[in-house]
Amino acid sequence: MSKFQLSRRQTLAGLSAAGAMSVFGAPFSLSARAQDAQIKAVLGIIRLASQAPSFIAMERGYFKAENLDMEFKYFEAAQPMAVAIAGGDVDYGVTAMSGGLINLAEKNAVKVIGGSLQEEKGLAGQIILASNKAYEAGLTEPKHLAGKSFGITTAGSSFHFMAYKIAKANNIPLSEITLRPLQKVGAVVGALTSGQIDAWAIQPSIAKKMIAEGAAKQIGLVSDVAPDYQVTTVFTSTKNAAEERVKTEAFIRAYSKAIDDYNAALVDKTASAEEVDAIAKFVHKYVEMDLPFEQAKANLVNGAMRINKGLALSLGSVTEQLNWFKDEKMVKDTITSEMLFDTSYVKTI
C-alpha cells in the first residue's frame, strides 16, 4: 500500500510540475516537443567527391541526430544552386562562390556562413590539366597557356577564378587565354578529352581518373598558385541565417561531424582500413555509381582534399574572391563583405 501511495505521490508531483512548466513556458517542455518533430531541410548537392561529408552525414544519421529531416537536391553547377537557395527551394549549399551568388547577396537574399574545401600545400589539391592534343603541341606547363583555351562552367565560376590565378602566377594577361563556358562539369570533361579545349583545372578525384584513363595530362597544381584558396563555401538564405539559427547550427554540427570522419579517413589517414572502406561505400552510393567499388574508392582516396574542420571560413581567400569579382565588373562595387558573409556561425581563419 505504501508503495502504491509513494508511486501515486510521485505521479501527482510529476503532473503538477509538468503543469507548472506548461504555464510558465519552461524550456524542457518546448525541447521535448521539438524532439518529436524533425525539422525539414534541403541540401543542394553537386555529385562530386568534395561533397563527401554530405553523404556521410546522411548515411551515418548525423542529420537525423540533430533533428533534421534532410533531403538532397541535385545540381550541375554552383550558380543555379544559389538561385534555388535565394528562392527558398533549398536551405543550404556547399559549393564555390560565383558571381550569381554574390549578386544575390547584394539583394539580401543569401549569406556565406562557412568554408569547406580548401587548397593546402602538401596535398594534391586541384590539378591543372592539358588535353592530349594540346600537350603534344607543347602545353606541358601552365606558363604555356597564352593563346590556348581553358574550360569553365560559367563566367564567374570557380573555374574562371582559377584561370585568373593561374594566368596571374605565370604573368599571362587573362585576355590571352580563351575561356570556354560549357555549363556543366561533364561537358568540360568531354571537351578536354576530345581536344575541343586545351586546358582545365579540377578536383583531383576527377583529374586523376582522367589521367589514369589517358584522357588528359597533368601540367600543374592549383595549390602552387593559390595555396590558401577557399574552393567551396557553405551558404544559405539570409532568412535562414537570421531567423533559423537553431536549424542552421544543427546543420553545421551534423556536417562538421562528417567532416571529421572524412579528414581522418582520407586526408590525415588516422582511421582504420575498415573505416576507410565504410566512408568510401557511403560516397559510392552517390558519386561514380557506375564504377566498380574498388575503382571508385581508389579515385576517392587518391583525390582527397582538406575540408575545413568545423566549416571554418578562410576570410582572406573569400574576400580576395569578392574583390576579384568586383574588379572584373561581374558584381557591383557597392557589395561589401558584410552583405555577403555572416561570420557568426563558424571560426574564421
TrEMBL record:
Give GO terms for biological process.
alkanesulfonate transmembrane transport
Q: Name one GO cellular component term.
A: periplasmic space
**Signal peptide stretch:** 1-25
Instruction: Spell out the Pfam families in the cross-references.
Output: NMT1
List, for all copies, the residue spans of the domain called SsuA/THI5-like: 52-261
Q: Where in the cell is it found?
A: Periplasm
- PANTHER family in UniProt: ALIPHATIC SULFONATES-BINDING PROTEIN-RELATED, TAURINE-BINDING PERIPLASMIC PROTEIN
What Gene3D superfamilies does this protein map onto? Answer: Periplasmic binding protein-like II
Q: Record's InterPro entries?
A: SsuA/THI5, TAT_signal
Which PROSITE patterns does the protein's record reference? Answer: TAT
Keywords per UniProt: Signal
**According to its UniProt record, which protein family does this protein belong to?**
Belongs to the bacterial solute-binding protein SsuA/TauA family.
Protein name per the record: NitT/TauT family transport system substrate-binding protein
